[in-house]
Amino acid sequence: MEYSPMNIALQADRVSYPKRESALKKIFAADYGLLLQFLLIIPLVGASVVFHLNIIQWVLVLAVTLLFLICGVFRTASLLQIKRDPSLSAFQISRIKCMGNAIITVTAGLSLFTYMMVFIPKILPLI
């Protein structure tokens, strides 16, 4: 029996791309807040260009924005999984929802703090 781990990995990878796309489509259809989070990127990038941010500020803004978006995607995916899995108890469901909301709240606060630290020193001289 000949075993070829490379072929198995390639076959699994080819199959998983359509599943990822359909899963992301379901996530964005289920939560319109994610669309608003993605639309937040447009004014952030525009303000970053207008205020001529340096590389460190760009990295900070992009890192916290991506962290916020990724947490939103995972939160919505976990909420969709809750709806599909009937074996979860009410206690587990409430814990999953609370943890998702807490993670979004913490990352939103971190993002807001970072945006304030980056943009307020740029805005104050204009006032």
Count of helical stretches: 5
Q: Examine the secondary-structure arrangement and name the CATH architecture.
A: Orthogonal Bundle
- Would you tell me which CATH topology applies? Helix Hairpins
The separation of the N and C termini measures 75 Å
Main beta sheet: none
Can you tell me the residue ranges where pLDDT is under 50 for at least 5 consecutive residues?
Answer: none
β-strand number: 0
Task: Tell me the Rg in angstroms.
Answer: 20 Å
User: Oligomeric form of this entry?
Assistant: single chain
* Percent helix: over 70%
CATH class: Mainly Alpha
Strand content bin: under 5%
Order of helices and strands: HHHHH
Q: Mean pLDDT across all residues, rounded?
A: 84
Q: Which structural class fits the helix and strand makeup?
A: mainly alpha
Q: Quickly count the domains.
A: 1
Shape: elongated
Question: What does this molecule look like?
Answer:
- The radius of gyration is 20 Å and the shape is elongated.
- The protein has five helices and no strands.
- The protein has helices spanning 5-30, 32-39, 41-50, 55-84, 90-123.
- Helix 2 (32-39) runs antiparallel to helix 4 (55-84) and helix 4 packs antiparallel against helix 5.
- It is mainly α and 127 residues long.
- The N and C termini lie far apart (75 Å).
- It has one domain: Helix Hairpins (Orthogonal Bundle).
